[in-house]
Amino acid sequence: MPDLRKASPQTSAEAQTVARAARDDGKTGSQPKQALLSIEGLCAGYDGAQVLADVSIEIGAGEAVALMGRNGMGKTTLIRAIMGTLCPTAGTIRFRGQRIDGRPVHRVVALGIGLVPEGRQIFPSLSVEENLLATAANRAGGSPTWTLEGIYGVFPDLRERRRNMGNTLSGGEQQMLAIARALMTNPLLLVLDEATEGLAPFIRGEIWRILANLKAAGQSILIVDKYVKALAHLADRHYLMEKGRLVWSGDSEALLANASLVHRYVGV
What we know:
alpha/beta; Rossmann fold; six-stranded mixed β-sheet; four-stranded antiparallel β-sheet; 11 helices
């Protein structure tokens, strides 16, 4: 198991190099990376009110993709549609080539998508270890990458507090537990909704380091967050959303070079 605690921060120039290298690594000759998740023309909403309009996103195997936008622009709605808690009104969602739009949550999860939800949503009356064991599975098949010992190696604070109830943990510890709980499903795709919202800067830094090393180890990631510089260091590609539509997509180099774009659509 790689030590996921030792990632070092990157400069903007390094982020650009990482982005270019990731694109090169995703190609064999002239062939692009296989699509792990493919969303085409997706529309969805609530009680007859449309929230998402013609959204198309693709994530390759081993790729990290960021989804950004101001609050209320449809990011969480998109994740709900992916996870099966919201049925789209049009369009398709394919995971490893299989259509999953409209499938129930348990079937989506069983295919290998692990979610770190907004607000963490850990089980407050279960211990840390019980939270982890409650979701333990081997979605990818073969020898599981993530076991209790592997998780405790990456999150030593969770080992120390493994007998503590979930509701006694700090916000940062709860977020670490939420990520660890998703990893215990051994997902092919890890989805994080508002990955570092409301956390102290030091804890945010720890989470970014862990996610960077997960990606380096081959984990595919879809992440919603607002910290543009951190996302530029982590993700290969970025999508910006406004009022339920995708308004821009590009790599980290293009994102960092366009401050006015970030200010307009993300506001940070």
